[in-house]
Each structure stands twice: as structure tokens, then as C-alpha cells.
Amino acid sequence: MANIFQDILAKTSSEVAFNKSIVKATDWLNAQAKRTAPLNTQAIIKQMPGRGRSSILPGRMYLFNYDPLHKNDLPYYDRFPLVFPFRTVKGGFYALNMHYLPYAQRAILMDALYMFINNNKNNETTRLQLSYNLLNKFSRHAYIKPCVKHYLNKQVKSRFIYISPDEWNVALFLPLQGFKKANESKVYSDSLKIIRGA
Question: Which of 26, 34, 122, 134 sees the fewest Cβ atoms within 10 Å?
Fold first, then answer.
């Protein structure tokens, strides 16, 4: 099976600059994503052993397989979170799961988050300088609210797939989410209600 994720990244890396223009790239990236749908995210994770990490670092982007401990009590959940971790706690971590936003809102939030980037090297030293206190102050940006999630380490069912900074803009728009117990329309509708304060 061809590595679809790598192919898309290779095709788009020269066309999507690492800057604050992701809103302009939304339509093009969505078109790329639709041509690959449906993606098998589980297979993609297995195809990328060289990117696998046993632990996470704050401010980097990761994709992983997750099985919530209390999934029967949740209205829905994402089996394949695409996250920016920002706080480690005993037994787990807090992260922004970008999948909880519709694509246009992901672009807007990502554009805002770039103000917290530490450098423009596009390598493993590049990260978002996120912290719990910073996000509390930044909470006026309502798009953050539906994205904040708590993950338990023991419920992570794969290695953490590291997404390099020059690939963030592409990964953000790929249909990698795996919502269970509700479809995307329901999840996005609920997130938009949270954003509007409804």
C-alpha cells in the first residue's frame, strides 16, 4: 500500500509555504484531502515507523491512536487525535486536538497560534511555545475551547507520529480524524456552538 500521507506531503511541501498564509491554502488542501478520501489513518500510522516517538514534547505536532478509558460515557471521541501538547500531568497530558474544528476554523486557529512559534527553522527545534497559563490568557480566542483535551498515557494505542513543522499546514487539512459515536457534522456543530458561547 502506497504511503498516501507521505505522497501528499511531498506534493504539497513546495506549494504551501511555512508562513501565516494557511487560510489561503485551505481550498487547495481540502481538494487534495478529498482526492485521497477515505484515508485509513490506522494504516498511515503503521506506515510511518521512522516518525514514531515513545513520548511527546510540548508545542510539537503529533498524530496517534487513542482509546478513551471512559468512552462509553462520552458523547463522541476522536480515535486519531492530531495534537499540539501543552501540559504534561501525572499519567497523561493536555493537548489541543485540531480535529475538533471544521477545516476553516482550523486554519484561523493555526494562523493565530503561529504568533507563539519559537523559530522559523522548520526542524525539530521548532515548536509552539504553548503553556497552560498562556492558553488561559489566550482563551479569548474561542476556537481553542473545543480543542482542549486530556489524554491518558495508558490509553494511547500507538507510538506518537511526529509531524515536522514544514508539514503542519498540510496535516491540518487531511481527513485523518476518526470520530466515534457521532459523525463529523455533529462534532463540528457542537464545536461551533462552544465557539459562539451557545
Answer: 34
The answer to whether the CB of 45 falls within 8 A of the CB of 20 is no
Buried b / exposed e over 62-95, threshold 16 CB at 10 Å, is bbbbbebeeeeeeeebbbbbbbbbbbeeeebbbb
For the CA atoms of 190, 194, 197, 198, what is the dihedral angle to 10 degrees?
20
Overall domain count for the chain:
1
User: What's the distance, CA 107 to chain centroid?
Assistant: 11
Integer angstrom CA distances of residue 160 from 46, 145, 178: 11, 23, 16
Average pLDDT, the chain: 83
Give the predicted TM-score (pTM) of the model. Answer: 0.81
Tell me 40's DSSP state.
-
Residue 181: pLDDT band with limits 50, 70, 90: very high
